[in-house]
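[recover] target loaded
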């Protein structure tokens, strides 16, 4: 495997977009933060979760990382989730009292820790929660903005409002709960999770699907409020079964490179790289993002004049990604 497999294309334009990196604690993620903090505008660590009692739990990220971020004057915007993306934690959407309690806790935490605000990342909500979730976001935004804090939301990617455009019950069980129009009015910006393409048998975001996601989003969210999601992890597919058999980051890729001498290919259709290799006499394909593919996505962001990108997640990336941003 040659080093060129991970090289970026030339990308000389001066940066004028907001670069958000999600952060999950771990040695590799910390190492990436320490090495590449100058390429990060907002660090979004997974810290807080709302439980079934409407309490704000602190899933503390390693203090070393946050101390470093503050020392480098990075803006910190933690994620707030429904704990483990559970239905039980959605009880807060039916309780104004729980919501008031969480709002007070969030303001206290932001003041104490110097956060710029939060990103709300509620997932696994069915369609019945759509209006309740939009109202909750509006309430949090009003309360946080009065104290000078930002509120953004992460949303699952959509390509339309037609339930038939999504396989199985994805619309009813996962996607339909996000009212882009309402959320855009209530949030300072929206991170569209434009990865985990549900119909892909290749990259985590096929080119045509990504263009549909952007097209839908710009019709419902002011373009200056859209942060395009970029997944920095890989998917491995079995060429025999056509099943997804692996997900991981650069550390896993290095193991494949070392053990199986893969072949590198650039897809001119998907505008993304992939590796093919043989393991135990069976062939596999690994799709991922490198500097070249990320640079092309940034070109799309600039073409549509979007807010920037939200990358999942720091420490998973191929090193050349930072040459592109």
């Amino acid at each position: 495997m040659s080093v060129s497999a991970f090289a970026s294309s030339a990308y000389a334009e001066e940066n004028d977009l907001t670069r958000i990196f999600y952060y999950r604690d771990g040695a590799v993620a910390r190492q990436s933060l320490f090495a590449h903090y100058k390429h990060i505008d907002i660090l979004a660590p997974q810290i807080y979760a709302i439980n079934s009692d409407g309490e704000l739990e602190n899933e503390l990220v390693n203090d070393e990382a946050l101390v470093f971020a503050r020392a480098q004057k990075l803006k910190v915007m933690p994620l707030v989730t429904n704990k483990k993306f559970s239905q039980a934690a959605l009880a807060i959407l039916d309780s104004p009292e729980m919501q008031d309690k969480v709002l007070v806790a969030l303001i206290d935490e932001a003041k104490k820790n110097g956060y710029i605000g939060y990103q709300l990342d509620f997932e696994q909500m069915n369609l019945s929660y759509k209006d309740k979730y939009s109202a909750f976001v509006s309430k949090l935004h009003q309360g946080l903005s009065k104290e000078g804090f930002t509120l953004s939301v992460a949303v699952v990617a959509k390509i339309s409002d037609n339930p038939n455009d999504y396989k199985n019950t994805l619309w009813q069980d996962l996607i339909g709960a996000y009212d882009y129009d309402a959320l855009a009015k209530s949030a300072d910006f929206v991170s569209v999770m434009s990865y985990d393409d549900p119909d892909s048998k290749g990259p985590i975001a096929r080119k045509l699907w990504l263009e549909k996601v952007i097209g839908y989003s710009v019709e419902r969210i002011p373009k200056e409020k859209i942060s395009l999601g970029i997944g920095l992890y890989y998917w491995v597919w079995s060429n025999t079964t056509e099943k997804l058999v692996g997900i991981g980051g650069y550390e896993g890729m290095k193991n494949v490179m070392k053990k199986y001498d893969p072949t590198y290919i650039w897809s001119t259709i998907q505008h993304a790289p992939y590796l093919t290799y043989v393991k135990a006499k069976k062939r596999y394909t690994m799709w991922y993002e490198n500097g070249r593919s990320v640079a092309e996505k940034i070109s799309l962001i600039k073409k549509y004049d979007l807010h920037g990108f939200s990358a999942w997640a720091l420490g998973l990336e191929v090193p050349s990604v930072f040459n592109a941003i």
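[recover] notes: The domain at 3-231+290-324 is CATH 3.20.20.80 (TIM Barrel).
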